[in-house]
Design brief:
This protein has 636 residues and is mostly helical. Helices cover 62% and strands 6% of the residues.
Length: 636
């Protein structure tokens, strides 16, 4: 967190951020910038399409592809340097300078529009890409300085919502302002471009300061060398680099859909330009909804378990879109009303909406994870690396699509291939970083089988070494606790439970500590205490079930003295907590052996109640057991 006073405010709910000065001016600034980018790009494409500007030597289709390439090129050339600048200097001042540059670029862009000069129009497009390349690392790098960790998912969700709505509105505005003006008039679009640029600068003036991450950094400009060095240095952090690859893959997927929607709407669905706009709007609204819902589904934490959920949805809905697409166009140049009356049209729109929705689930936690795990002095460079790879994957997307079409493939076949590729890429990423899939299993458990009611979550220290102790009711107690606490937890687990299928994958990935009884396996018993001491010395959160076994009758067993040995070696606060409502569940021992009986209650409401920490010098077995028993109450 920044030391600026605005960052010391208490965490607020997602949409309440839009009323906070530490977020609202920034949100408006980035939204207006994304809107202006898309207005200009699509106004230029419309001018080319309507033959207002043209080349005697290059066809219109090639000109449109050149325009797309010129906008992406600066991300390859300048992202490494932009990341260095964003880490070296105070970010709010950088944003104001970038927005001032946007005003100048837009004024030049208006002149180019009036002159109908194709070289000048392309030069302005390159400058806009350069301005966006500079803004990118600042855009995501400033969020952790102004938001609490519990607000990162909500903040990133709003940013993605704003970005895709800006893309949608900018695409519509840029096209329509040219198409509806008549005779290629550029006055309406010129007024919009300059006015929005000025509004963006004015809003940027209210963004609070965000101190430099690394003021001593020496900036080097050598595009190829620095880009390679940037990627190599970022790749040293496995989780961050795999997250960047996952985000870049999403942009490959998204670019594939967005690039094909115009022809898909015209040649496959038989629609006119308004049907293309409908598809684009449906996709954008889906991503916006998914981005916003991430906050609710994650419970305010950086929940990477949503990433596999999003990846699965992208593949399933992508394949369903292929199956729901009509074999032959239902008509030609259909208006929106005629199109949605066609059988299967709503199915197509639902699939496109869900692809966007699951895309939001997929991408928002990844951005939040990068912001959370990157060292503050290197965060902007990590974002710059992300921008480079995003641009690269978008170019590969275009090349891949052209290759498929050259080989005789159709748009629906392309959609089917990228849906299957998404499953393969997801499997690769989750194999490289199994934490994603582990968190997905935990998230799935506590959002499907149970409805968890939390009380006292704020009592868990947000950082530093501590021990949490709880009653032991079922085989999934650790998973429930891991899914509710907003920081990683190292669990001490009986070795027989640790070895159970599926649970073993989760426990290994979460670096749980297996333990055995003293008389059962002395070596494993001693090794567990060594690992517990090391975890606490490294400032981690440790969870111990002092009963030592799962209850067989629903009542608490006496607490064992092992926890006192841990506290004597590492005096840290102890947080009592109690699980409620799990007795009688499929995973408890009531009514027979756990997991091999008919579940008595599905979608049951359970509770996790947490009390204030107890100082190490005040911990006794009696006080801990009494406190956990009081929290548990009569609900077993």
């Amino acid at each position: 967190m920044s030391q600026d006073n605005t960052s010391q405010a208490l965490p607020v709910t997602q949409f309440a951020l839009l009323r906070q000065r530490r977020f609202a001016p920034y949100f408006l600034t980035q939204l207006l910038g994304a809107f202006n980018d898309n207005v200009y790009k699509n106004a230029l494409i419309a001018l080319i399409a309507f033959a207002v500007v043209r080349s005697d030597t290059v066809d219109d289709g090639s000109l449109i592809n050149i325009a797309a390439g010129l906008f992406i090129l600066p991300f390859f050339l300048f992202s490494a340097m932009c990341g260095q600048i964003a880490d070296k200097y105070e970010k709010s001042a950088l944003i104001r300078r970038v927005k001032l540059a946007e005003i100048g670029i837009m004024i030049c862009g208006v002149m180019a529009l009036y002159l109908h000069s194709l070289p000048l129009l392309f030069a302005i497009l390159f400058l806009m890409g350069t301005q966006s390349a500079f803004f990118g690392p600042i855009k995501y790098g400033i969020l952790p300085q102004h938001l609490h960790e519990s607000e990162l998912i909500g903040g990133n969700g709003l940013v993605e919502l704003g970005t895709f709505l800006a893309i949608l509105l900018g695409t519509i505005a840029g096209t329509q302002l040219i198409a509806k003006a008549g005779d290629g008039s550029v006055l309406p679009v010129s007024l919009v471009l300059v006015s929005v640029a000025i509004a963006g600068y004015l809003s940027s003036r209210r963004i609070p300061p965000a101190p430099a991450g690394d003021p001593s950094l020496r900036i080097r400009f050598n595009p190829l060398v620095q880009t390679c060095r940037l990627i190599r240095s970022t790749a040293q952090n496995r989780v961050i680099f795999q997250s960047i690859l996952a985000i870049s893959w999403f942009w490959f997927l998204g670019a594939t859909y967005l690039a094909q929607f115009p022809v898909y709407a015209r040649d496959v669905l038989g629609g006119g330009v308004d049907v293309f706009t409908l598809l684009l709007a449906t996709f954008s609204i889906g991503i916006a909804c998914g981005s916003v819902l991430c906050e609710r589904l994650s419970g305010g934490r950086v929940e990477i378990g949503l990433v596999p959920f999003g990846a699965i949805g992208l593949t399933v809905c992508g394949l369903d879109l292929v199956l729901s697409t009509p074999a032959t166009p239902p008509g030609m140049a259909l208006a929106v009303g005629s199109f949605i009356a066609v059988q299967g049209a709503w199915h197509v729109l639902l699939d496109i909406f869900l692809i966007g929705l699951f895309g939001g689930f997929y991408i928002v936690p990844l951005y939040a994870l990068i912001q959370k795990t990157s060292a503050p002095e290197r965060l902007s460079r990590a974002i710059a690396c992300n921008n480079v790879l995003n641009a690269f994957f978008m170019v590969i997307s275009a090349v891949f699509a052209l290759g498929m079409f050259a080989a005789g493939g159709s748009i629906t076949q392309l959609f089917a291939v990228v849906a299957v590729m998404n499953a393969l890429v997801a499997c690769y990423i989750f194999r490289q970083v199994p934490e994603f899939f582990m968190r997905f299993l935990v998230w799935l458990l506590i959002h499907t089988l149970y409805r968890v009611r939390l009380r006292g979550l704020h009592h868990v220290p947000p950082e530093g070494a501590a021990i949490v102790v709880a009653n032991h009711v079922s085989f999934i107690d650790a998973l429930i606790i891991a899914g509710c606490i907003r920081r990683p937890v190292r669990f001490v687990v009986y070795h027989a439970i640790y070895a159970l299928p599926i649970l073993n994958f989760i426990f290994r990935t979460a670096r749980a500590i297996p333990i055995a009884g003293y008389d059962e396996n002395r070596a494993l018993y001693d090794a567990a205490f060594v690992q517990m001491h090391e975890a606490l010395e490294e400032g981690e959160l440790l969870c111990i079930f002092p009963e030592g076994q799962i209850t067989r009758d629903g009542e608490m067993n006496p607490f064992r003295p092992g926890i006192l040995r841990v506290i004597q070696a590492c005096p840290v606060p102890v947080v009592p907590m109690a699980l409620q409502g799990l007795w009688g569940s499929l995973f408890s021992r009531q009514g027979g052996r756990a997991m091999i009986k008919f579940p008595g209650r599905l979608f049951a409401r359970i509770g996790l109640v947490i009390a204030e920490p107890v100082a190490a010098d005040q911990v006794t077995l009696e006080t801990l057991q009494e406190r956990v028993g009081q929290l548990r109450g009569s609900v077993r």
